[in-house]
Amino acid sequence: MQKKLITVKLLSVLTVTALLVQPAFANYEEWEAERAKLPKFEREKTVYRVEPGKWSGPRLSDGQPDVQGQWSNTISNHTNFTDPQGATPGETPRTPLGPRESRAPSRVVDPADGQIPYQPWARALQQEYLKNFNDPVKPEYVEPLARCAPGGPSKSFMWHGYEIRQFPGYLVFLFDSGSRIIHLYKKGDKKSEQGNKPHLDQKIRLWNGDSRGYWEGNTLYVEVKNNNSKSRFGRTGEFSGTETIVKERFIFDYKAGRYLYSATYTDPSVFTRPWTLEIPARRVENFAEDGWNNQLGIANHKGKELILEPYEQICTENNGGFGGGSIIGAGNSFPLL
What we know:
Residues 1-25 and 321-337 have low confidence and may be disordered. Strand 5 and strand 6 (179-184) form a beta hairpin. The protein is globular and about 60 Å long. The protein folds into two domains: 1-41 and 296-337, no CATH class; 69-283, no CATH class. It has helices spanning 16-21, 28-35, 120-131, 190-195, 314-317; strands at residues 6-7, 69-73, 108-110, 162-167, 170-174, 179-184, 210-216, 219-225, 245-253, 258-266, 275-283, 296-298, 307-310. The longest helix is centred in the middle third of the chain and has 12 residues, at 120-131. It is an alpha+beta fold and 337 residues long.
């Protein structure tokens, strides 16, 4: 896959005055040293609240709020779905966790107990997946992301940083394992609504589902169908079904460089009632690269300007980033080619 290059302004690194007198760096090592001065991306223990309202930022030619760039969740990864900063049950945490109330809340915000309201058979299966996570004696016990399969409509937002790109009528998420396209229409515009592409035939099932959405102020509303139900929400074994319908809201705070992702899952065959999860996210361009939340590497090129290059499809392509995959000696300590 051909990588796309993006130019990053250095105003967050140096003052404008310094930029006027600072000579262009001549080599990668000097750029790397300068980037190391950026703040480290720190995990947060609370969820940043964003409410639906007006959009105060720039727009693209088709009227979409411009939210392109690099993003990452602010709480934790997919280790434990209902205790995001806890350990995988059955494993010894690397550091003492402290009391539960000192950690981030459950990703499940409704019901109030922070648990997915499963039907009895589904809860039993989730517990079976959890019990066999560390010793998967059957193929179905292997957590799909371990094989670089896409993470599903919601889990992908918990797993490393990712990029948002926008095109007329579309918004695209580029994850390190799979991508996702949202087909857009304009709510209230009769011609646009009539021209909205219907969901795929329900016989077609996708890892990240089939998405249709519209913008209203600072909020992107999305409906997701056609899920193949193969992905999990965490290493703790939570899952959804093939008939699940997901209603999502991406609520953006332009000035703060953040958004709140909310998704309501409905499927009477799997759950006893609809339930909702939340994942807070923020921009990461102005943080130091950490191989997890910020996966922008320094591009190796003949020019003198700093160009940052996102590690696309890291998991499936073994092209650097976290751990380097199966490439001996790969990682974050060298420029991308």
